[in-house]
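[Automated response] Your request has been received and processed.

Submitted sequence:
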Amino acid sequence: MPNTNIKKVRTSDLELKDRLVSIQRVTKVTKGGRTFTFSAIVVVGNENGIVGYGLGKANEVTTAIAKGVEDAKKNLIKVPVLKGTIPHAQLSKFGGSLVLIKPAAPGTGVIAGGAMRAVLESVGIRNVLAKSKGSSNPHNLVKATVAALAELRDAYSVAEVRGVSLSKVFNG
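Generated structure:
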């Protein structure tokens, strides 16, 4: 089911920080020998609710990272962050990766591994519990984590969609 509440963000007035999640050396065997190229997956975010990921491929590491950053800036989404954590638990899947993220009390920190940690810290989430089940492929983990974050909704957006007041959302 495609998510309809993904909000695209303009990059013109944002202070984005990039994090390299994974870099792979890819070998292509030709009749002239082996050709080496590099593939980099990069996460960018302003640590205030905006995040994006990108993939860059090039003959040199630095060029691949730069291309990944440019690609990530084209795919930014807005994530609701409430008091340093997320509004509710969310389960998401991409490929063989299954990701579970849950809100946590202040002082807990980011309990997540590898690729998920890079995404969650780039968003600006400071307290969260996260579990990766299934494949640990960094590409699929990043995509599943971003998909989970894109599906998050805060109480204000739920009230707006339902057309009721904020107090009615909590009191039924």
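Summary generated for your ticket: Residues 23 and 40 are 4 Å apart (CA to CA). Residues 61-73 form the longest helix (13 residues).
If you did not submit this request, please reply to this message.
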